[in-house]
Amino acid sequence: MPQLTEDQQNAAIQSLASLVGKPAAEIETILTSDNPAELQTQVTARITAIRKAGHDAGMGQLQKAANKKAKELFGIELTEAPDSVETLMEAIREGYKPQVDPATLTEEQVKQHPTFRQLETNLKTKDADHKKALEEKEKELRAELQFEKLKGRALEALKTYGAVLSEDAKLEAYRQQMYLDKLKGIETKEVDGKLEFWRDGKRVENENLFPKTEEEFFKELVEGSYTVKVSEQRSSSGAQQQQSGSSGNGFQHFKGQTPKTQKEYDAILLDRNKHSFEAREEVRTYWEQNQPK
Asked: Compositional bias (Low complexity) at which positions (predicted)?
């Protein structure tokens, strides 16, 4: 064993003195006596005392915690800190006296218990959350179905109203997607047997504040995204009708100029103040009969 220096010896003696609670001089005396093992006996006794003090302190804290929880839950106070779960359960079984005899407990008393009421509140909250989630999912599904339904009509409208499609497939796909995106958020309702379009809770109306018809809605949708072609046959027919005068078309109610272009035709149908329903129906019939086959 290597020899300790004088400083190391002094440090060791001071440490031992602090541990056993005695002066350093007395520690030196014991070490140089005929029975130096006495110092080891004192060190062991001191360590044992420290451990016991720590254990007692810990048990004291456990006693307080156990008493607090036992009194809170079961209305009893423990005389000793439990050394195991089994001990704690036995103390509860012996000391717990329920406020109400279970044999005479009524349904109303159970429902008034704080624990039952808390559980009931939790269940109602979960039910409300589930109902809300279900309603949101149903709303999403209805919106998807509505969109798919309108999408089919919108694609047909491209042909009906003569949209000029791009020969570039990628460009056309992009433009068509932008076109269809305008349908998002649109809902349809049947009112008095007529289809109405709604967005964000408001009815889609024309400039005269009437609900837009299906024809008006999709026609404007197409013209807002595409260039619309006017056929030579339609223009030629319109020119001939203009030369012969409106009376030559068999109109009884419509007194204006025969429409030559899509724009003039739309203007007549939208002007409800100037043209009666019968007049507009005459123009609609004339226009459809003169579409290219």
From this structure: 233-252
